[in-house]
Specification:
Blueprint (H helix, E strand, L loop, with lengths): L3 E13 L2 E8 L2 E7 L1 H4 L7 E5 L1 H5 L7 E5 L17 E3 L7 E3 L10 H5 L8 E4 L5 H9 L5 E6 L10 H8 L5 E5 L7 E3 L2 H10 L5 E6 L16 H11 L3 E5 L2 E2 L9 E2 L1 H10 L5 E6 L6 H9 L6 E6 L4 H5 L6 E2 L2 E2 L4 H16 L2
Parallel strand pairs: 3-5, 8-12, 8-13, 9-10, 9-12, 10-11, 13-16, 16-17
Antiparallel strand pairs: 1-2, 1-4, 2-3, 4-5, 6-7, 14-15, 18-19
Helix pairs in contact: 4-11, 7-8
Length: 355
């Protein structure tokens, strides 16, 4: 199940919030690796490292790193328990389990807020299937609203894996992050999406929240076997908490797979069959002529409990290109699948209009 390798750090590369890129010599060959210093310590050149190379050996695009499991000859010091309260364990019962202070647990200064009968007060919350939608949604929101990213555990568990989040934070496009479920590494940690959303609103003072999994979408080509099914459950949670769910439809003209052409079956299933509460489903306008008939037919098959909101995208190109990172989804940049990014940006624009 795990492919183990031992290596030696030959050089230290880029660093971003919570993560450090390395080049590691394994059996004489260079291997690209990633370390999370909060979990394993900070590797330096010459350190021996134990690596998990499973994802690398599978050729996974998102997971194309060997991951540092330990520095066996130089273990990090024990954490100062007094300075770091918290008993919430994430990645539970795995060798890499971590203990964090949950925003909703009894030791948290915010426990009293989350123990009350708080609601989202109608806050708009954009939900998206893929992590790659996050920057595009922010481009659509634009300057002004305080936006918090709530990361679910359908993809990467450490938020630190996302260079996009680090870049968006540095550019002040996000005011904070919350990691929920088994995900960890956010500014705040929460047990569930429900308390994570309440923390975004009442602790980080969000005007808009964005809910999406971390990098590394999982799909199996089956009707129900994909991590994005959680989008529908997110709509239900937002509705229960008296927020305003906004669905960022996954629309593509660049994906050659029939099940993802037009509106992806992931969106059709999540909003059409899993989400039992109504949501604003944002439809970018205009649609590409090659997709217009197909998308309109797909929209007609969605339950009428949802509200279809058509949002113009004619002037969103500049905002997308002005982002401080390169947009990419499934290896396709902006110009190869423009409608995907415009759809996400349109959802952000609609959310901003409700603030």
């Amino acid at each position: 199940m795990i492919r183990w390798r031992r290596g030696v750090v030959s050089s230290v590369g880029r660093a971003w919030a919570g993560a450090l890129e390395l080049s590691v010599s394994v059996e004489g060959a260079p291997v690209r690796a990633l370390a999370y210093p909060a979990m394993v310590g900070t590797p330096v050149e010459g350190d021996a490292v134990l690596l998990n190379t499973t994802a690398l050996s599978l050729g996974l695009g998102t997971g194309g790193y060997a991951l540092v499991i330990a520095l066996p000859d130089r273990l990090p010091p024990d954490p100062d328990v007094v300075a770091g309260p918290g008993h919430m364990v994430k990645a539970r019962y795995t060798p890499g389990q971590v203990t964090v202070l949950g925003v909703d647990e009894q030791d948290s200064p915010h426990h009293v807020v989350l123990a009350s009968d708080a609601s989202l007060d109608g806050m708009p919350v954009v939900v998206a299937d893929l992590h790659s939608a996050l920057p595009a949604i922010l481009a659509g929101v634009g300057p002004g609203p305080r936006v918090v990213y709530v990361m679910t555990d359908g993809g990467a568990l450490p938020l630190w894996f996302s260079r996009a989040v680090a870049t968006l934070r540095d550019a002040s496009l996000l005011v904070g992050t919350v990691t929920v479920g088994q995900a960890f590494g956010g500014d705040l940690e929460a047990v569930t999406l429900h308390t994570g959303l309440l923390a975004a609103r009442h602790v980080l003072s969000a005007d808009v929240a964005i809910v999406a999994q971390g990098p590394g979408n999982l799909g199996t080509g089956t009707p129900w076997g994909f991590s994005g099914v959680a989008v529908g459950e997110a709509v239900n949670a937002i509705s229960v908490l008296e927020g305003r769910p906004i669905g960022s439809l996954r629309i593509s003209s660049g994906d050659a797979r029939e099940r993802h052409l037009g509106i992806s079956h992931h969106s059709l299933t999540a909003y059409g069959r899993v989400a039992l509460a109504p949501a604003d489903l944002v439809v970018p306008s205009p649609l590409p002529s090659s997709l217009e008939d197909r998308v309109e037919e797909q929209l007609a098959g969605l339950p009428d409990r949802h509200r279809l909101v058509r949002v113009p995208t004619h002037d969103l190109d500049g905002a997308l290109r002005a982002l401080p990172l390169r947009l990419s989804s499934m290896g396709r940049p902006l110009d190869e699948d423009r409608i995907y990014f415009e759809s996400a940006a349109a959802a952000g624009r609609h959310a901003a209009s409700l603030v």
